Amino acid sequence: MWEISKSFNFCYGHRVWTQELNKEFSLDSQCKCRHLHGHEATVDVTLFSNTLNKSGMVTDFKHLNWLKKWIDDKIDHKFIIDKNDPLWDTMFNWCIAEVVDNEFQPRTKNESGENSWCDELTREYYEGFYVVDFPPTSENLSKWMFDIVQKKMSELGISVSKVTWHETPKSVSTYNNEWGT
What Å distances lie between residue 9 and 24, 40, 41, 117, 165, CA to CA? Predict the structure, then answer.
């Protein structure tokens, strides 16, 4: 079997509202990940195949360019927030915006009937979020990214072996397709 990997770097923020600590192991009870905070992340995507294509590759590394664009457009410098977070209603004014395809869209319409924001600052605030339906832990984020990549790469008949989410250089989560088989 052959494997190829490509890494992607970006910045994001999150809040792990579900964090709980065992004081015996953590040495204190400070749940810092419950605070709004950010990371400079690296995501490693590993693809595999039992055979090589006619070019002698698993696939061309350029076939992952779509993922770089997706990361840049959707989650780079965004705050990934769980729509089940208890602070959800505190953070967002639902008369102004609603979630459509994981991003906020304005509820108001302009003279031509198109959606528009009340003002530029409000638009900028809401554009800074990417909404998910799970606590954005590194474990959940690695599985989420795995599913996104697998869905797209399956169009080329390519399988994802694993996705590793480096929350920091020393804190890493891997979702590995082979562990469940």
Answer: 34, 7, 6, 31, 10
